[in-house]
Write a structure and sequence with these properties.
about 150 residues, alpha+beta, 4-stranded antiparallel sheet, 3 helices
Length: about 150
């Protein structure tokens, strides 16, 4: 029974992860060695755009942008991106055969033995397969919006 519940939990986790957006770059968070204009850098988020869960993923993207900005944000640009993935497979099959034979002939005064060995290698198959899979993403660039009244309040 525990194996079944583990399998169900794994399936649920995979289903939830497939429903979300992915933060590619958070806005203006490159660390202490970043350039002085790092705060002006836009954030980038993407989500899969090729099935029925598109709207759910977009809502997840909105939530992640809101969290990354600790509040208000604006979308600077958005559009489609197609990521291609190429998978290649190369196969080489060889057939090798070895054989040994021995023959003995006996005559009354003497006996003769003959040994024969043979080896053969044949290259029988070379194949190559390439598969290209395209995944469609919707990419949004966003910028955090800071309340201007808070700056004048200081």
């Amino acid at each position: 029974m525990p194996a079944r519940s583990t399998l169900l939990a794994l399936a649920a986790a995979l289903a939830v992860s497939a429903c979300g957006a992915t933060m590619v770059n958070a806005p203006g968070h490159a660390g202490e060695y970043a350039p002085v204009n790092d705060g002006d850098r836009v954030g980038v988020i993407k989500f899969r755009d090729d099935d029925l869960l598109r709207e759910k993923r977009r809502q997840d993207a909105y939530k992640q942008m809101y969290q990354a900005c600790a509040g208000k944000y604006s979308i600077v640009d958005e559009g489609e991106s197609i990521d291609g993935k190429e998978i290649s497979h190369y196969s080489n099959t060889k057939t090798t055969s070895d054989s040994t034979a021995q023959s003995t002939t006996r005559y009354r005064p003497r006996s003769t033995t003959t040994d024969a060995n043979s080896s053969a290698e044949t290259n029988t198959s070379n194949s190559s397969t390439t598969v290209v899979r395209n995944q469609h993403y919707w990419v949004m660039q966003f910028r955090c919006v800071h309340d201007s009244s808070a700056a004048s309040f200081r």
